[in-house]
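Demo today. Your pick:
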Amino acid sequence: MRLVGRLVGLPVALAALGATAGCRLGPLVDDQPGASANILPKDANIRGVDTNPDLMNQIVLNDSLDSNALKASGNVIQRGTGAAPDGTQVKFWAFGDADRAPTPIYVFGSGDPASASFTPLADHPPMVETVPGDVEYEPIHTIFNVKVTEKYDHQKITTLAALSDAIDLGLVEAPVAIKVFVNWPIVRPGLRLEVAPGASVPPTPVYAHGYLVDSFPLGGALGRQPNPRGLLPTNQVSFLRGVTDPDFDRKRPIFQASIPPGPAQTDPNYTPLSVVVNVELNDAASKVTRDSDLFQRSATGDIMSVKPIVTHFTVTSQLTDLQIQFAEGSP
């Protein structure tokens, strides 16, 4: 868990004073923690990240989205088209490189934080520690549920420091890692996500660095995947270079992953995180319509051999976030 720096204990000066003032039998300060400047009142106006030019520019430069493509589409993140393992075409969104260590997202709510009875608050967005451009940022997040207590009065917890103070003040309980990950990328302000031809959805606001930032939780219920081992699972995605192609085609991925048939149980049945495989062919790339046209795989998904159309392949070290759209019209 990345929640660090709990604000507990007395300042050094007060502790030293207590050691020398032997005649004082009572505490020098109230045992109960006081107010916090980090926690904002319920009527506080939380500004959008566009009011902080430096932070907004950081996100724009690092959210892995093509500014020219966004300008041409009217600020809509458009879908690409790839091939599922069964040969059907699937839509997907691309959110750039990632790694196997998800970053936390804190969801505030009531009920048992470790069970399905936990209910997120309708008036308090989730909070993330990092945004694109921060060293530890990842578009895929691991979920921590944070239960509010009877002392909570709709205060706004918009930073990690505020969360730490809220725990000390008894407004919330310590975050509970539910060992579930979700693809929830943070993006620059003012975008929409294409979900069908001519149809798009607005972003979901979350708190980060004390501001409201835009994000897109992806996959719905099927996108919430168990993660008992901590590190994210991966599949492979193949990019093809046909015999006359100048380079590998990044616009038509051949997925090893497929749309999950239902909600995952104890183990994940989908991951958007893919290891890039560059595949060179001795024929046109259009001849390949599915992963099995390229490889013979074992029951665990490992490449055992290649098909005749493949002249060479390289399993790279690149990990990329490619989210397959599970249902038309839904993010």
Summary: The two ends are 28 Å apart (CA to CA). The CA atoms of residues 125 and 162 lie 14 Å apart. Residues 102-186+203-217 form one domain. Residues 4-32 have pLDDT under 50 and may be disordered.
